[in-house]
Records
---
Amino acid sequence: MNIHEYQAKALFEKFGVPVPKGAVATTPEEFITALSQLPEGPTMVKSQIHAGGRGKGTFTDGYKGGVKFCKTKADAKEVAGKMLGNTLVTIQTGPAGRKVQTVYFTVASDIKKEYYLAILLDRASSKPVIVASTEGGVEIEKVAHDTPEKIIRVVVDPAYGLADFQVRELIAKLGFAGAEAKNAAKLIRNLYTAFWETDAAMIEVNPLISTPAGDILALDAKVSFDSNALYRHPEIVALRDLNEEDPKEIEASKFGLSYIALDGNIACLVNGAGLAMSTMDIIQHFGGTPANFLDVGGGASKDQVVAAFKIILGDKNVKGILVNIFGGIMDCNVIATGIVEAVKEVGLKLPLVVRLEGNNVAAGKATLNASGLKLVSGDTMADAAQKIVKLVA
Amino acid sequence: MSILITPQTKILIQGITGDFGGRHAKLSLDYGTQVVAGVTPGKGGQFFEHGAHKVPIFNSVAEAKAATGATVAVVYVPPPFAGDAILEGVDAGLDLVVAITEGIPIKDMIRVKRAITGKKTRLIGPNCPGLVTPGAGEGSKGGCRIGIAPGYIHKKGHVGVVSRSGTLTYEAVYQLTSKGIGQSTAVGIGGDPVNGTSHLDVIKMFNDDPDTHGIIMIGEIGGNAEVEAARWIKANCQKPVAGFIAGATAPAGRRMGHAGAIVGGAEDTAAAKIAVFQECGIEVAATPSDMADALLRAAKARGTKLA
């Protein structure tokens, strides 16, 4: 689960990670109250959406930049008016962009130097890893590619936690000294505590900055959480912003379905994540384009299948549907009955290819054939994929 | 033979009194698997009954092991308690713990993995379908079924299957069985980022098992476990190997940050993994329908008999 920058910074402050003073507004009326909390002077205006690349993004009305520096609070108020309610397109939002529903004002800090700092899971060692660099405020992938020696990695032993010698190593490699070193060490320790205590999946601070006064601040903050652990963090669940999620995905999750919308025109309904992913692959292999990822899970009850069909048909690009079920334990006839009832209930007009395999498959196929529905049977995944691609073409 | 488990392996089930664990306990008993004990704290002394089977329930894994000689535990308990259940099996000194549970917090698994490092117990999973060593009976009955895989699609034989995904494992096994090719053991290692046993761990066991003549390795986008296994295969494995990577069309996702990209490395996309497979002499299945055929091609090229 992702949260906004302003929410992440509030979390940072709770854990003793210094951030520039800021305030949010969700309506033009709130601009004044928000700005009144900040001192007069240079102010940053930051669009709050769940995507990176905001600074270099462009709004759909042509206005450039989702993050802006303003010399005065008056300028900041004017800029915020252009962002709020406008739709921002960045390299991570896709062409549709994301509507800005919250604007975040912060004091524009004096920057001495920019750094990079992140904490996430290192899959190779199954341990948390702190990634840091003296090259901050730039694309870290480019730094990793061009100058890999400038990427510092410290793997933390979960049995002991972040050790002091590891903090000293980070401080030394980042080149901090004196008051900066003391402040940076405290920030790194507190950020690690925040990561560990909140079940974060990833924390990224880019840039982390030093100021001429010797302060170390998190100038930006991206935080995502392990969705498996949300049950023990009601305070984090409360930060969820449904405006940032696809309504179809929210609807799907209510029925225990895992759904992700894509750009193609062949919808698929599959049991199991691996099979669902490879069903998309095989559609593309035979020249079609998948409209979605949809995993109905281990079972496939009638209610789930009906809900799945409704969600799929809510996507206007869909021209055909491929159902691919491997009924391992589930009785295929139960699944077939569910499909028939679901198709009748939603009044399906589009071509439908069903590939059913597994337990009691003969009875399942008989049920499909006897239904009088205009559906096409596929014997294997390849056969079914070729058939739906042909029907949609 | 087979790897990890045989039809004689005695297993205990943690969570046998739950709906999920109970349903699969019955299916395993029907398959002929030696389910010798159940563990549910507070229900020790009761029995899990199914047909003629009467499986004793114990309060702890240690008690169950001492009383029945079970060497393998399978964990069906809900996510908040699953990490603890795994540690209990490891503490009892079992040979193998198989965690079926889906949705265990990553932090719990980070701690579990650290805690079991250096212990004799192997962990498979979590979020996995388990493993099956098929038996010689009808529908491969008489084998050892641990977890949630459908037993009847298997056939006793000489192909090892290893996969992160349950349904893709079934797909591969079913293709093999439909062509009359049996399996030594099919292992689902699970889809979570932190798991107990990797592709490479299983590949090494298949390589050492004289009864396994060929291997199907099924992977997904993300991480570099399949790449690690492929490189080892190139250097060490003399058996035919077929591979499939799911997720070629998966969207990059609305990833917020960039840290994952530099930690995951450049080799975690489907295209990159497929390229490494080819470079390492693994016969790549172009589609999931092609997995068994790909292994047949690899076996033919090496003159290996699979059935």
---
Amino acid sequence: MAKYVGARQKRVEDPRLITGNARYLEDVQLPGMLHAAVLRSPYAHARIDSIDTSAASRLPGVVAVFTGQDFADLNPLPCAWQAGGVTNNANTPRVLEIDKVTHTGMGIAVVVAEDRYAAEDALAHIEVAYSVLPTVVDAKKATEAGAPQLHENAPDNICMTWECGDQDGTDRALGASDVVIREHLTNQRLIPTAMEPRGAIGSYDPGTEEYTVWMTSQAPHVMRLLMTAFVMGIPETKMRCLSPQVGGAFGSKIFLYPEYPMVAVLAQKLGRPVKWTESRQENYIATTHGRDHQTDFEVGALRDGTITALKVTTYANLGGTLSTIAPGIPTSLYGSMLSGTYKIPHLHCQVYGVYTNTAMVDAYRGAGRPEATFVIERAVDLVARELNLDPAEVRRKNFIQPEDFPYEPASNLLNGLAYDSGEYEKALERALEQVGYREFRQEQQEARQQGRYLGIGLSSYVEICGVAPSKWVGLPGEGWGAGLWESANVRVHLTGKTVVTTGSQSHGQGLETTMAQVVADELGIPIEDIEVKHSDTMSTPFGYGTYGSRSAAVGTIALYNSVQRIKEKARKLGAHMLEASEEDVVYQDGNVFVKGSPEQAKTIQEIAGAAAVAYDLPAGMEPFLDDTAYYDPPNCTYPFGTHICIVEVDTDTGRVEIKRYLSVDDCGPVINPLIADGQVQGGITQGIAQALYEFAAYDDSGQLLTASMMDYAIPKAEHLPHFENSHTVTPSPVNPMGIKGIGEAGTIASAPAVVNAVVDALSPFGIRDINMPLTPQAVWRAIQEAGR
Amino acid sequence: MQKIPITVEVNGRKASREVEPRLLLVHFLREALGLTGTKIGCDTSQCGSCTVHLDGMAVKSCTVLAVQANGSQVTTIEGLGNGELHPMQQAFWDNHGLQCGYCTPGMIMTATKLLEENPNPSDEEIRDGLEGNLCRCTGYENIVKAIRAAAETARGGS
Amino acid sequence: MYPEAFSYHAPSTVEEALALLERHGDDAKLLAGGHSLLPAMKLRLSGPTHIIDMKHLRGSLDYIRDEGDDVAIGALTTHRSLERSELLRGKLPVLAETAGCIGDMQVRNLGTLGGSVAHADPAGDLPAAVLALDAVLVAQGSGGTRTIAAGEFFHGFFETALEAGEILIELRIPTLAAGSGSSYQKFFHPASGYAVCGAAAVITPDASGNVASCRVALTGVSEGAYRATAVEEALVGKPFSEELAAAAAEHAADGIEPLEDYFADATYRGHLAKTFVKRALLTAWERSG
């Protein structure tokens, strides 16, 4: 009987967080620790002619000042996910740049001082001579003739040209369609903005020649691998990486950043620990951004609303250099998902990955899938609009049906994978019913007569998550540079207290709770007896970390499998203790007993004790209940659902107010509804933010205009509606728990729901599209241009 | 370098230090006194992660100099509950009002003041009252719920 | 972010503060609530070498007093005190309303009227209300005090009529004529909370429903807050109606080149000026009588 799984279990990690006792990176103090501040390029494109650090070095409190030359023996950072099957003209940052910068905020020099005020003071005394070069910030313009060239190995600033699907078939199908609708979409650049900025602390033990690096990372094992084997050229075993409490990430803390190996090397050079933490301004100019697509698409349809083909061309802005997995985002995680929830017989997607004089772009919550969902969900609405059909009806008409699973999107879009399971129409119908769709249409008509503009927007999404199958990501078409399985270790100690270590990394998701819930139910012990530990390469098995909504569908399944093996061993030992034959005993709710005789049971605590003291074990059995599992699933998982947004537009100011927001998500069985709803709510918020509020604005010289929280509009409580969340449950056949993942679904679904609603509200003006973000000015201007 | 002696009563205990005039209150609390529960999330007084109570008022401790707090009383997240969970802390726990937890200390410090002034706020008043605190994880749904629940508890409701 | 080093002074009297200002000239900055100055210092956009903290002057410059024809408000009165003052809510409600639109609770707890007005941020809220209320500003210098009419105080981008070595110590605001209505309508920047456009209006009707007098001021639109006199002229002496308000509001940005930034270009800001002036007029009229 499941006691914990499925329950609204309060989080076990919360007491330390609500009392101020959690230890984030900024809170870690080491004896003798020094503080580093990085001098960053104020120019977006420049040659570094000379750097004079002498004045800065002489300031009180300053211990040392270093430039790129001092790190010249280190390799540039690696790009670990290059777009599959094509040439990637890869250019990555160095720990500190030596002769050239390609975006503002690249590190040029570092001051190490006794305290941070002194380090910051010294930055102003470093003299750098730059030769400023012409800049380009727009991805499409960067590929045009005459554009400034960023890298010699990337003609026309093109990093990679990637495609998926069937171009000829798609062109033919478009030609045979009753209608073809063309549209240009902007999926603007966003700044992830975890509340906790990034940071790192390095220390070095000259006796053992070992480095320890604390950092704000979603993937400490991967960081260790990349830093040691790729950047520093030392054995992986000579470094320990730890993520302490991490204050949100949303993708931005997956990657290897220059400052991480930098603090390690500084600690070794100076013989004292060195801490670096970024300001919010640095976070905005020097941490990765997300999205930034310009897309043109053509969608073909028959008069009855049947979609015949989708052809997409996207310019993906990758920034001045490549971040760790940048090319994989607008390719494998984007083009592959453009079929959405629909049976589209012909698809083709062409992607140009482009260098520009802007901050690096990499995964940000959803990573590719929000961009794909935005294209297809806008396309479906445009089809409905063109054919004067109800957008819900067009969705129904084209949905992949339950009996179609496993469903391989046409044109081999998914490179051999297939959607696992889904009941797309059920989620849509439930959402329509909950929102009162028909009644709303009535209300909308009445409101229009009073000069009020209400609109409703649907978004029926499917996403790919639990990113794993190593054999898939390792295919030539996908280009991932490593595996993507996940690990877990379970140890039941002599006292029955259980420690779980995982290769996953919790930074707000509540994994310490959800993983404990699974172990408690499976093992049949109280949740209080379980400690879930993560994020330390010394004490956890190698794992790839937490991103891509993979810690339930991959990380937790590794844990589940490990517990099954623990149970099996406990069952065998229990049989021995009961002097019964193995075939006759069962493991149930923490007890081992002979079938039919539960009153004579050995508890898991007794069995763990017997295993640990090992006085009397069955022949050949090793002591202790300890198991490590490595789980590499056969497929990804594919959560889905429908979100509905209702807005009212103030046509005088262009301001959009969200009146209602409703979600029906299906992530399979839910481990903890409290946490799952929280993930959905936070996810929806980031999609609403993209639709209405957030955008990273660069001027033509590559200066970020939205480089502070005074300018970049993270939504406040007053900007958001109450969320009405519910679920349908369609288990995934991919894993034994049937779970799919819910970390990114909200973000993937929500932006198109909001945009569709605004466009619906403004349809009386003849408006069929407004590019994101739908700021008041953009909406007002669209109304002006449409005329009344 | 000028150093100024200051005495601040923090969480009921007097702390005296000599500080540089430019030291921010948040750094005084975190680094001089080791009270790291108060967080820093922006440079520009937007995010509210650093909110503490200064002489009974919610303030952003990143925008106050330590010398300005000389002679004042400060309460931080560590001192809010007097060794137990404050009802607001309990409400955040019960209602899943936090995810990564980084904004949470400041959010809770603001929320307690919000209820002091308006013990029976509507959802809209709660949302307006949180205009100086940013959360990136929750979408505020459960923060609003937690504050409503704390208000109910304070009124003796269930 | 960390401010540059400075010397710190905490004078006990205005006279001491004036002496420090005189001694240190441009190297010194007055610190009131600090919510404009300290962020600028942390970003190293401002690097004064002397800070003159006004905290000990609160005893003498933090007050809201009913003086019959005027309400006198000390320069160190916080936004929070303005917002919550029963006296203001009764006599000068638009000032309380405007103060309540500033920043957030934490900012309002420390930010001061005098600091905000003297800083003259082009997107600050209070300058609009101060203009619409036709306040008189009292400045003290080494030679004594002088008064400056609000209409002559704001000189554009962070510039005011205050001389070097002068401190704004008080605002005197004439009590509104009986039956007046007032309103501050603001378009909040979604990130900063500053005014992309803010319009303050005070209208006094006469017995027959005509506009007897009216003052309208805007902030956020131009390099400094300004009185929209063309709007006022289009209203005075005429019977108030929504159409009249709309027509008058069309003059909200007459002679103004609206500011332009990544969030709102000049055309849109000019449009907002008209829209928010109209809204302020309608609300003020509704509250009149």
